Amino acid sequence: MKKGRFVGRPxxxxxxxxxxxxxxLFAVVGLTIxxxxxxLLTVYVLDVGQGDAVxxxxxxxxxxxxAGPNTAEYHLLAELRAMGIHRLDALVLTHPDEDHIGGxxxxxxxxxxxxxYIPALETEDETFSRFLKAAAHSGAEVCVIAAGExxxxxxxxxxxxxxxxxxxxxxxxxxxxxxxxxxxxxxLMGDAEASAEVMLLEQYPxxxxxxxxxxxxxxGGATSxxxxxxxxxxxxxxxxxxxxxxTFGHPARRVIDALAVRxxxxxxxxxxxxxxxCSDGAKMWRKQ
Length: 288
Known about the structure:
Helix content is 35%, strand content 25%. The protein has ten helices and 15 strands. It has helices at 2-35, 73-82, 98-101, 104-110, 126-138, 194-203, 206-209, 227-233, 253-261, 269-272; strands spanning 41-45, 54-58, 61-65, 88-92, 113-118, 141-144, 150-153, 156-162, 176-181, 184-188, 213-215, 237-240, 265-268, 275-279, 284-287. Helix 5 (126-138) links the parallel strand 5 (113-118) and strand 6 (141-144). The longest helix has 34 residues, at 2-35.
């Protein structure tokens, strides 16, 4: 018995020691695995021709900002399905211009949407009427956008910075969003033009307007993206959504030059197709 106890005890301790080491190794490996899989924010500036559609993914939740023009509605639907999008947590329409809401009715008819956010703007345009009918039949909750409001998308915060006024053109009443995830942030300007930019700069401190990625306003048109706005936002990346060979001359030479002199990395859907930007919460990069 004595000999059995003497021989068995070291064996037991060795087993316990090995078991403890295995548990420790499992814990370390587990922590390493989790550290290698941070919550990611991914922004897709989709190529819809002369229009806007931006898909945002975070922690398994999805947001679509604008839905492109009528001419790209089924292309947009096909692209979302190819990306595995079977539902949307939110659809934000920045303003009721056709090149921003054209595909909204098809999206609402084919993809379940939890919430729709729209500014308090109306138009008698047929495209807007089709959107209203589709929204009414979709079962989605419709929320009217007001500056200062926000919602959460996964681990990201989505803030509505504008419209600050509903006077003037629909472009200057466009919704402006800032999406922040950890230390990374994105500014989506819709079609906001000069007077809307002035109001943003007067309303918010520069540190709140700063962003890693700027989705340039009004497709890079000459009446948007002032020097003052660029200096306040100070982006590393700029994305321009415009159609190849469009008749509006977008993007304007002044805007391209202003981005170039600041050494901002510029992506254009007319030249590069769909643009993809990713963040791990600490830094943002453009996926080639």
